[in-house]
Amino acid sequence: MLPDGTHTAVVDRIEDGIATLEVDAADGLYGLEIEAAELPTEAQTADAVLEITVEDSALASVTYEPDETTDRGSEAQRRFDRLSKRPPRDGDDDT
C-alpha cells in the first residue's frame, strides 16, 4: 500500500480511461491506478511527471510538473542518442 505523504509519480500509460502511475516513495516504487480524468488535462499522457499527495491511503491531490516532464524527456532522448551510436569496430579508421 502506498504510504501517506507527497511523492513523485510518472504516468506509465493510460488505457481504457485508467492511468497507471509509477510512484517513487521513500521505501520503494509503487504502482497506482487511477481514473485518467483525475489527472490535469496536460498530464494525461505517458511520461508526464506529477507530484501527488496521499492521505488516509487515498489520492488527495495531483499536480503536473511541466519542467520535470521536459527534463525527463530530454534526458531520455540523450540516453537513447548515446546508445544508438555504434561503437567503432576494431580496424575501423575514423580519419
Q: Biggest sheet, strands in spatial order? A: 3-2-1-4-5
Question: How many strand segments?
Answer: 5
Query: What pattern of helices and strands is seen along the backbone?
Result: EEEEEH
Total discrete domains: 1
- In the CATH hierarchy, what is the class? Mainly Beta
**Given the structure, what is the number of helices?**
1
SS class: alpha+beta
CATH arch. level architecture? Beta Barrel
The helicity comes to 10-25%
Structural account:
By secondary structure, this protein is of the alpha+beta class. The protein has one domain: OB fold (Dihydrolipoamide Acetyltransferase, E2P), CATH 2.40.50. The protein has one helix at residues 66-84, and strands spanning 5-15, 18-25, 28-35, 49-55, 58-64. The chain has a 5-stranded antiparallel beta sheet. The N and C termini lie far apart (58 Å).
SSE arrangement:
Layout: E1 5-15, E2 18-25, E3 28-35, E4 49-55, E5 58-64, H1 66-84
Antiparallel strand pairs: 1-2, 1-4, 2-3, 4-5
